Amino acid sequence: MMLNRKSFLLLTLVAVAAKADVNVSATKKELKVCYIDSLAAMRDSKAGQIVTVELESKRKRVADDLQRREKEFTADVKMFQDKSPTMSPMAREDEQKRLAKMERDLKLTMQEKEEDFKVDMQRATEKLSKELDEAVFEFARAEKYDIVVDKITGRVVYSAADQEPTTHIVSIMDRNHEKRGSSGKQSSTAVASSKTSSSSKSNA
Q1: Which of 94, 117, 143, 187 lies deepest, with the highest CB count within 10 Å?
Q2: Stated pTM of the model
Q3: Rounded distance between C-alpha atoms, residue 96 and residue 83, angstroms
């Protein structure tokens, strides 16, 4: 009879443990993750299409303006080459200086236009990126995603608040730091004690 009771208690404990394990497994939340293509989203969105048209229009205006200036410079150089044999030394020197300045100004203008266009592209990209993040946040919360990752850059665009482990990681780091600090102090104390003991024996 005693053996039967022990067997019954053992089976009961096993059953309770198994049930508890099932409950723990059931409460574990599986992360809901999705991946997006940020470049495609920004390119295919209405905002992205508008920005693309605007940038392309500006690029064409800049290119046309630079091409016009370059043609004017090329025409002036050809005219100088044609007239150079009949020009006085002083007139030839003045024209060479004018053409040299014209060339410098053209190169400077090209650099400035290029920099301006890069700035416009960067601003447009930042604006689109902000709109993309807002849309991702709205989508992720509505569809109850835990994490949204940009597969182009690898950037985590969205992370649910309960999936943000930084605070917990900081706590673990602090706890480990305190443990290491305590161990270090104990080791230093042990070494000092050992040295004192050895010194006392030597004096004796």
Answers
A1: 117
A2: 0.59
A3: 12
pLDDT digits (tens, 9 = 90+) for 30-68: 889 999 999 999 999 999 999 999 999 999 999 999 999
> Residue 113 contacts by C-beta under 8 Å, 6 or more apart in sequence?
62, 65, 66
SS3 per residue for 69-96:
HHHHHHHHHHHHHHHHHHCCHHHHHHHH
Q: Which residues of 114-125 are buried (b: 16+ CB within 10 A; e: fewer)?
A: eeeeeeeeeebe
The pLDDT of residue 171 is above 90: no
Contact between 69 and 111 under an 8 Å Cβ cutoff? The reply is no
Q: Within a 13 Å sphere around the CA of 184, how many CA atoms are in the beta-carbon half?
A: 6
For residue 181, the model assigns a pLDDT of 80
Give the separation between CA 44 and CA 135, rounded to whole angstroms. Answer: 14
Domain residue ranges in the chain: 29-170
